[in-house]
Design a protein that fits this description.
Structural class: mainly alpha
Distance between the termini: 12 Å
CATH topology of the largest domain: Cytochrome C Oxidase, Chain A
Strand content: under 5%
CATH superfamily of the largest domain: Cytochrome c oxidase-like, subunit I domain
Shape: globular
Number of helices: 19
Order of helices and strands: HHHHHHHHHHHHHHHHHEEHH
Number of domains: 2
Radius of gyration: 25 Å
Largest sheet: 2 strands, antiparallel
CATH architecture of the largest domain: Up-down Bundle
Strand order of the largest sheet: 1-2
């Protein structure tokens, strides 16, 4: 593997040859590089979304402020929500899935490597398309939920960017979901049955099915909104027989499974970290797996609890109130299994464990406030207040974002071969916890005192100033925590070269059986799996005389030696780099601009997409 692949083919089907260097990132189909690109780009969007949040909190830090105008606030508020949901949490979860799923199931790559590259490029170009609206007439301003009639009658161009941008990123998520689901189902190593898969893989599989079944629903809604805005149809206009409530049904039929699309990856990360740092197996493995499946299934039946104030009637409200209470049951199963895993364990509170435990605690707070929404009269009072803002931030920030950062600290040595600073990591954790509770805790009180959501200012006479000031201080505390994390990354990056311990946490799953970072082919020899927590069982055995757990001496059983890495890999055939996924994806935002500005551009975009897929189809797929 000398950094280049023999160039075969000519003309349109000539393959790029570079596998290292700057330009190789534009043509790579390696799941690890694509995972890193997902992670890096989504983290940049996280910083942008965080900056938008700081502007929001600065505006609301005091009454009657005019740091931004009402119109600017609506755009910042909308883009913050879109960024955090569609451009950070979802793609950062995809970063973990792309990098880790093949390693954790003993595969060399995903099922469709070039489709994987197309998914990434569609995501990043869709995100850039959405953000280009700031410079082309104004960003979306109707909230991330995009309720008609405001979203369909507003004359500015922003909500048309909204429909097209989400359609492009939806294409990315849809093809990625199919790819990863096929990978998990068909490419597991010999012996890795479904109930020998790590819980992270189980949660990943559930998420891919949620994406596959929920994204078509929001796609229909977005196409209808696009036609209402651009072509004069009236899907959501009651004057012409349309129905704005139709949008709410379609949006939340996607939007509530979306909550679990965001949170279940973090649940999988928690379920990998807690056993490792408790030095014992995950309690109730099968219950945790099936509870994740149950959450995904029931999640499609609770959407109308977002619509209790829409006038659906007592029968529908009662039914969805009951389903909202029921979905708390499988979630509670996971929490009690995590607690049982830690009970009487040999607990080690390294940074990944601290963030995981903190994230679970924050998620429980959000879950408890969420259960109150199953009480229809209470939800009716809370629905347009900051109580809801507090609830979903405890769920999504406390659950999803804490989980993603815990995963970063846990798998950083695996991915980069270096371990992040524990001192800075713990500083990051405590600032995160303090900042989050200062920011979102007071919002419960603000909501109960009647502070309305989605408003850019408030009068001093309402007595809301103190808790808003506390929340604003908390938001800047979170910002400091993120700066500490970035400083930790920079410090680690600048550290003298040299691999960290290849098993720094005494891990349990097979991705730790290969080198840190892994070679391009993942495993010199694909492992055969004999049990759940295969890597742990290769390191430990039970003393026949005393029954005590003892570690197998290094080299005692070479075929089970976790540190053994052959020098081979030269005969392994790998997918070849390709620039056609990038070409095909480039046509998507051009198509969006064409729909907005010029039908000639639509034709050019369609031609680029067609050329991209033809070149893709004709190109040899494997380096020989």
């Amino acid at each position: 593997m000398a950094g280049v692949i023999e160039d075969k083919g000519a003309g349109l089907i000539r393959r790029p040859s570079a596998t290292t260097g700057f330009w190789s990132w534009f043509t790579t189909v390696d799941h690890k590089k694509i995972g890193l690109m997902y992670g890096g780009s989504s983290f940049i969007f996280f910083l942008i979304g965080g900056l938008e949040a700081l502007i929001i909190r600065s505006q609301l830090a005091g009454p009657d402020q005019h740091l931004v105008t009402a119109a600017q606030y609506d755009q910042i508020f909308t883009m913050h929500g879109l960024t955090m949901v569609f451009l950070f949490v979802m793609p950062m979860s995809a970063a973990f899935f792309n990098y880790l799923i093949p390693l954790m199931i003993g595969a060399r790559d995903v099922a469709f490597p070039r489709l994987n590259a197309f998914s990434f490029w569609a995501f990043i170009l869709g995100g850039l398309f959405l953000y280009s609206s700031w410079f082309l007439g104004g960003a979306p301003n109707g909230g991330w939920f995009g309720y008609p009639p405001n979203s369909t009658t507003d004359p500015s161009i922003g909500m048309t960017f909204y429909t097209l941008g989400l359609l492009i990123t939806g294409i990315a998520s849809s093809v990625g979901a199919v790819n990863l689901a096929v990978t998990i189902i068909n490419m597991r190593a010999k012996g890795m049955t479904l109930f020998r898969m790590p819980i992270f893989i189980w949660m990943g599989l559930v998420v891919q099915f949620l994406l596959a079944f929920s994204l078509p629903i929001i796609t229909v809604a977005l196409v209808e909104m696009l036609f209402d805005r651009r072509f004069g149809t009236h899907f959501f206009d009651p004057v012409y027989g349309g129905d704005p409530i139709l949008w709410q049904h379609l949006f939340w039929l996607f939007g509530h499974p979306e909550v679990y699309i965001l949170v279940l990856p973090a649940f999988g990360i928690f379920s990998e970290i807690l056993p490792v740092f408790s030095r014992k197996p995950l309690f109730g493995y099968q219950f945790v797996a099936f509870s994740g499946i149950a959450i995904g299934f029931i999640g499609f039946g609770v959407w109308a609890h977002h619509m209790f104030a829409a006038g659906l009637g007592p029968v529908a409200n009662t039914a969805f109130g009951v389903s909202t209470a029921i979905i708390a049951v499988p979630t509670g199963v996971k929490i009690f299994n995590w607690m049982a895993t830690m009970a009487q364990g040999d607990l080690h509170f390294d940074t990944p464990m601290l963030i995981a435990v903190g994230g679970i605690a924050m998620f429980v707070i959000g879950g408890l406030s969420g259960v109150t929404h199953s009480i229809v009269p209470a939800d009716y009072q809370q629905t347009d207040t900051y109580y809801i803002v507090a609830h979903f931030h405890y769920v999504l920030f406390g659950g999803a974002i804490f989980g993603l950062f815990a995963g970063m600290y846990y798998w950083w040595p695996k991915i980069f071969g270096k371990q992040l600073s524990e001192r800075l990591g713990k500083m990051h954790f405590w600032l995160f916890v303090i900042g989050m509770n200062l920011t979102f805790g007071p919002m419960h009180i603000l909501g109960l005192q009647g502070m309305i959501r989605r408003t850019y200012t408030y009068p001093a006479t309402l007595g809301l100033t103190f808790y808003n000031q506390v929340a604003s201080v908390g938001s800047f505390t979170i910002a400091i925590a993120v700066i500490v994390f970035i400083a930790n990354v920079v410090k680690t990056w600048r550290h003298p070269k040299g691999l960290a311990n290849e098993d720094p946490w005494d891990a349990r799953t097979i991705e730790w059986m290969t080198s840190c970072p892994p070679p391009v082919h993942n495993f010199d020899e694909v492992p055969e799996v004999h049990s759940l927590d295969e890597f742990w069982h290769r390191k430990y055995t039970t003393d026949e005389r005393t029954g005590e757990l003892i570690r197998i001496p290094a080299g005692a059983a070479p075929e089970h030696d976790p540190g053994h890495h052959a020098s081979g890999g030269h005969a392994i055939h790998l997918p070849s780099p390709s620039f056609w996924p990038l070409v095909a994806a480039t046509g998507l935002p051009l198509l969006g601009y064409g729909i907005l500005y010029s039908w000639y551009l639509v034709g050019a975009a369609a031609f680029i997409i067609l050329v991209g897929f033809i070149g893709w189809a004709l190109e040899p797929s494997v380096a020989e």
